[in-house]
Amino acid sequence: MLALSQSFMPAQSVKRLFLIGLLCLCMVVCLTALATGGVNIAFSQLIHILNNVGSDSLQHAVIWEIRLPRLLLAMAVGAGLGASGAAMQAIFRNPLADPGLIGITSGAALGAIATIVLGNTLLSSFSDTYGIYAVPIGAFLGCLIICAMIYRLSSQGNQFTIISLLLAGIAVNAIVGALIGILTLISTDAELRDLTFWSMGSLAGNSFEMILPSLIIICICCVLLTKMAKPLNIYLLGEQQAKHLGVNVVALKKKAFIYTALCTGSAVALTGMIGFVGFIVPHIMRLIMGPDHRYLMPASILGGAILLSLADILARTLILPSELPIGLITSAIGGPFFLVMLLKTYKSRGF
Amino acid sequence: MIEAKNITVKVAQNTLLHDANLTLDCGQLTVILGPNGAGKSTLLKSLCGDIPLTAGQVEYQQLNYHEYDAKQFARMRAVLTQNYDCDFPFTVQEIVEMSHFVHADSTPFTTLQAYSKQAINTLNMSHLINKPFTQLSGGEKQRVQFARVLCQLLPALENQEPCYLLIDEPTASLDLYHQYQVMQLARDIANKGAGVLAVVHDLALAASFADNITMLENGRVVAYGKPDEVLTEAQLAQTYQIKAHILQNVGSLPSLQVAKQALSNA
């Protein structure tokens, strides 16, 4: 009995250690992100600036008004995408699933692009009322409307099946794609440039006031998704099996859907499309520490935050004084890293 | 006691189950037999609450199963199904411990851990606990799932509360040795006090382990009773259109003897 308990204790404690390691790495990345950029700030100076709120040096302004909100946004968006990706992969019981499947990204894109293209004509009162907030709000609304449509289409009575969700998602995504195409067609050159950049993603130009609502929503959703870890584990055994173990499967799927929609929606509303994070982060974490969501969920949250903050450091320093779209960087770092992980796993399994 | 009273299940125009009755007492192993398409799995699923009944009702402990909440129900009845496709590499240990979810509110964690160890040891799987489920053979997967449902029922068994295990074709992907092993386990669990209901294809297995047999044909219960009362030559001829009888030698479990000309008019 004793030998048995010892032989499986390491696995869990290693996972805990790994989470602590991720947390430390996350802090290091945070400090690095604050210190690097167009204006170089030494670490000693950085600590001093962070301790003194009221001061009006240039460095102080750079940290408090530009880098800190941007870092927080990067971390929150990365964390939100990581958690949503893990939840979607669990709900679809497929490690290749992605929040885009349920129309979040296409909905947000439709909302944002409609606001950009029709901002001067059809939606002028909307853009006048909300000013610089118009595009994020438009994107968030677009995401909610499209997700609500897919949700409604796939829930018939007391049913909420994954196959109907998938099919409704594919159909609605296709329709939204066509609408985006039409909007792109009628856009002016300037609008076209805006919407192209929106769809490549950017973390630039967001103040504290602008990001606060998103931060709150993402944090709440991450906590709620993490709390669903145990039933999600059981759900991976199969829907019937989860039911037999007393899990309310329909409620679980609906909750995962709603939290993911809110979480990813409020993330991409501010940043535009940042692909790949939601897919790749949970995947990498699963390769490292297994599919148990009690560890996978926090690891995906931390991993997402780290990946996106790192990507943002590169995005804003590589081609100073201008900036790379962050979506490019996440795919450029994430892709090769993922491939290496994948090849290593195959080798260790002996395929 | 589980009581299925006059249950009928219709899907679209098809009547899968017609006015079926069944009772299952604690401590008993009842086997559901019947040809393909007779409604065996439908009967089992309607007892687990997986499919809605068109008519009739199912009672656990004199209470309609809709009266229980999901976890309460899961503490009392476990289900072992045939197919487990799981692309996620949970370890054997993690799979078995998923049954802790049912009891986490009412039982301390250390007790649950002891239960999962007991279940794993009972199935002789302690050398596999850290192996990913995805890398196991079909037979091993089935045994892991058996350990999981056993672990789900162990708290009730230990406290001598009524509990039930419903098994859908547990031996389908197993070799001969493991077929008998799994049925012996089902027998042991029944002896410990659980009511066990199993859908089985193999008549000899049913005759070897069952207390009672329910024979289905075209969605109707056509015979119920002790194995030697149900598995008569006349009944087998009527239900399976085959001339056969159960052979029992001293020192062996029953086997099926099929007459040579049995298939001639098929």
Describe this structure in words.
The complex is a heterodimer of chains A (351) and B (266). Chain A is mainly alpha-helical. The two termini of chain A are 34 Å apart. Chain A has 15 helices and no strands. In chain A, α14 (293-317) crosses α15. The longest helix of chain A has 34 residues, at 2-35. By secondary structure, chain B is α/β, with parallel strands linked by helices. Chain B has a single domain (2-263), classed as 3-Layer(aba) Sandwich (Rossmann fold). Helix content of chain B is 36%, strand content 26%. Chain B has 10 helices and 12 strands. Chain B has helices spanning 40-48, 70-76, 92-97, 100-103, 109-122, 138-158, 176-191, 203-209, 227-230, 233-240; strands spanning 2-11, 14-24, 29-33, 55-60, 63-64, 77-80, 164-168, 195-199, 212-217, 220-225, 244-247, 255-258. In chain B, the strands form 3 sheets. Chain B has a 6-stranded mixed beta sheet, sandwiched between helices. In chain B, a hairpin with a 2-residue loop joins β9 and β10 (220-225). In chain B, α5 packs across α6. Chain B starts with a strand and ends in an 8-residue tail after the last strand. The chains are: A mainly alpha (351), B alpha/beta (266). Chain A binds chain B through residues 1, 4-5, 7-8, 11, 93-95, 230-231, 233-234, 236-238, 240-241, 243-248, 286, 290-292, 349, and chain B through 48-50, 70-75, 77-79, 81, 83-91, 93-95, 98-99, 101-102, 104, 113, 117, 126, 129-130, 135, 152. Chain A: Its main location: membrane. Chain A: The chain crosses the membrane at residues 68-88, 100-118, 130-151, 163-187, 207-226, 256-283, 295-314, 326-346. Chain A: InterPro entries: ABC_BtuC-like (IPR037294), ABC_transptr_permease_BtuC (IPR000522). Chain A: It is a multi-pass membrane protein.
